Amino acid sequence: MHLLGADPLFSHGVDLWVVLIVIIKTVVTFAVLMVAVLFMVWYERKLISDMQNRIGPARAGGRFGILQSLADGIKLFFKEDLLPERADKRVYRLAPYLSAVPAFLSFAIVPVGGAITIGTHETTLQLADPPVGILFLLAMSGISVYGVMLAGWSSGSKYPLLGSVRASAQMVSYEAALGLSIATVVLVAGSLSTRVIALDQAGAGPGGFLPDWNIIRLGVVPFVIFMIAATAELNRPPFDLVEAEQELVGGFHTEYSSIRFALFFLAEFMNTVTMSAVIVTLFLGGPSGPLLGVLPDWLWPIIWFVAKLMLFLSVYIWFRATLPRLRYDQLMDLGWKLLIPLSLFWLLVIAAVRIEGWYVFVGVGAGVAVAALLSRAMTVGRSRVGEKVGQ
Predict the structure, then answer these.
(1) Hey, what long-range contacts does 144-149 have (CB within 8 A, 24 or more apart)?
(2) Spatial separation of the C-alpha atoms in residues 124 and 2, rounded to whole Å
(3) What predicted TM-score, i.e. pTM, was given to this entire model?
(4) What is the pLDDT along the chain (391 residues), one digit of tens a residue?
(5) Which residues, in sequence order, are CB contacts of 108 under 8 Å at separation 6+?
(6) Which of 1, 43, 150, 336 could make a disulfide contact with 95, Cβ separation 3.0–4.6 Å?
(7) How far is 112 from 121, CA to CA, in rounded Å?
């Protein structure tokens, strides 16, 4: 039986052409993600240089600075591949792949467009749509923790070990808040399939003035929690404490070089692209958007998806360029004392008001949550000022 959101490619069984189409989709998805990573490296360098008025990155690397990213890749490929004497060789070699592969597998469940026809077969612009797609996403996020932890442990050095322990504690702490914010989306959509979640947000909301996206339906709070938790999961500023140079030299990958270091570098930017795509799918309707004519109908969902994706990639770069790094105690306080209780409270609010007129209740709850958040921030600020005055 064909289910809503399921790939119609498999509705009539599996034959040689179906297998060939799946292989083509896999290769294209991998190629698109690699190109997106290369673009993200270039885009981050250029945008930060413009924000901070840094002349070198703004002008180096030929026209538009494209050659600079190419030079970085070539340099990493031809650098000496080091293997520390005290390293656990098998685990040391395995760890980079445990960081990079989950990022690709997570992107595989993201719907980037509608349906297209290849020959006589119709398929969706999504590599895989498992019925438990959200659980698969959380599983891949958990596996990436092992790559970071094993990289630091297997290096045979104390500083990478400290960096990996810090990274693991950080990722586990924010995984809880991230999972609870996703639970609110699943509660509203009634499905774990990413395509069903995206289709559930298509169209206009009540009154027809705003889109029926989850960021609006859920009262913004789960979106903000997910954004903060995802940033901490990605180890991006202001949560990049796993590689705080003043304390840990370079973090869990200090002893890596050449292509193995490149895999960690690749995993960081690939995870950024993947998590931005997941945010677009869960909260901004995925590829949904108006069909404005001029271009073919199948192309507009891709355009809307890319536009939304670019928005969040720019936000992550903006974070890196402007926000100072948190202290580790601030990082843990934010996760355990604020985000987890707030996300659990909001999940209970959404579950309690799944009745007609629930938007009003969510609006009231949003006001209460924001007030609690500001109260907490002011309390912490006053306590810090008091500590400094006492000193």
Answers:
(1) 144/98, 144/99, 144/102, 144/103, 144/171, 144/267, 144/271, 145/171, 145/172, 146/95, 146/98, 147/95, 147/96, 147/97, 147/98, 147/99, 147/100, 147/102, 147/267, 148/95, 148/99, 148/242, 148/252, 149/252
(2) 13
(3) 0.85
(4) 334 446 788 877 788 888 898 999 999 999 999 889 888 988 888 888 888 877 766 666 666 777 777 788 888 888 888 888 888 889 998 999 988 899 889 999 999 988 888 878 888 889 888 889 999 998 888 888 888 888 888 988 888 888 888 888 888 888 889 999 999 999 999 899 999 999 998 876 666 677 889 998 888 999 999 999 999 888 888 888 776 655 656 678 888 888 888 888 888 899 999 999 999 999 998 898 888 878 888 889 999 999 999 999 999 999 988 888 888 888 888 888 889 988 988 888 888 777 555 555 556 566 666 656 655 655 555 555 445 445 5
(5) 29, 127, 128
(6) 150
(7) 18
Whether the bond into 238 is cis, omega within 30 of 0: yes
Residue type present at position 180: L
Distance CA 269, CA 228 (A): 17
